[in-house]
Design brief:
Distance between the termini of chain A: 31 Å
Largest sheet of chain A: 7 strands, mixed
Number of strands of chain B: 11
Number of strands of chain A: 11
Structural class of chain A: mainly beta
Distance between the termini of chain B: 41 Å
Helix content of chain B: under 10%
Shape of chain B: globular
Helix content of chain A: under 10%
Largest interface: A-B, 32 and 26 residues
CATH architecture of chain B: Sandwich
Largest sheet of chain B: 6 strands, mixed
Oligomer: heterodimer
CATH superfamily of chain B: Immunoglobulins
Radius of gyration of chain A: 14 Å
Shape of chain A: globular
Order of helices and strands of chain A: EEEEEEEEEEE
CATH topology of chain B: Immunoglobulin-like
């Protein structure tokens, strides 16, 4: 158990809809990262928050947005869903900007939310 | 743009065989990490290598960081069915702690 909790585990929805994925980081971790994993593109970085503020942005579509709340949980909002958005969405957390108990950026991942868009 | 390329993408071997997975980049990384992911779970860190030329062993797994810190390898001796999974290399990009990942190597070890 990594200590990172993601909900829901599975989600099936239709094109054009909007969904929200939720992540609770490990206790004490200030950084939250969102990744998308699809079969053909591997694990792609979407966005990072640190203590409530956006710190890094990857290849995140404009239809997607995220935020980190004062209690440090984070939500990833996906709107105007398309078939190609079907993927596993992972949340990861680390203690700080440089990560973990060292300066080498260990990330602790949740079990993921599997999104299927029909 | 930093990229990590892993090879091979898929590997299917018999129990007891040895194998090596490679992770290469044209960029220098301050460190590289290897994660293992099993179906239905998130990636879990196996090891971090931080010094060029460093070799780390984790039971039957041997990890090496290239002298120029642009590449890494994972060698498994006498593979077992329990080693089956997706192996991912990752490296820090920028100074915020985010990691970029290679596309992964899917390993299947048949009994």
């Amino acid at each position: 158990d990594s200590g990172v909790t993601q909900t829901p585990k599975h989600l099936i929805t239709a094109t054009g809809q909007r969904v929200t994925l939720r992540c609770s980081p490990r206790s004490g971790d200030l950084s939250v990262y969102w990744y998308q994993q699809s079969l053909d593109q591997g694990l792609q970085f979407l966005i990072q928050y640190y203590n409530g503020e956006e710190r890094a942005k990857g290849n995140i579509l404009e239809r997607f947005s995220a935020q980190q709340f004062p209690d440090l949980h984070s939500e990833l909002n996906l709107s105007s869903l398309e078939l190609g958005d079907s993927a596993l969405y992972f949340c990861a957390s680390s203690a700080g900007l440089a990560g973990g108990t060292s300066n080498t950026g260990e990330l602790f991942f949740g079990e993921g939310s599997r999104l299927t868009v029909l | 743009t930093q990229l990590l390329e892993q090879s091979p993408q898929f590997l299917s071997i018999q129990e007891g065989e040895n194998l090596t997975v490679y992770c290469n980049s044209s960029s220098v990384f301050s460190s590289l990490q290897w994660y293992r992911q099993e179906p239905g779970e998130g990636p879990v860190l196996l090891v971090t290598v931080v010094t060029g030329g460093e070799v780390k062993k984790l039971k039957r797994l041997t990890f090496q960081f290239g002298d120029a810190r642009k590449d890494s390898s994972l060698h498994i001796t006498a593979a077992q069915p329990g080693d089956t999974g997706l192996y991912l290399c990752a490296g820090p990009s920028g100074n915020t702690g985010k990691l970029i990942f290679g596309q992964g190597t899917t390993l299947q070890v048949k009994p």
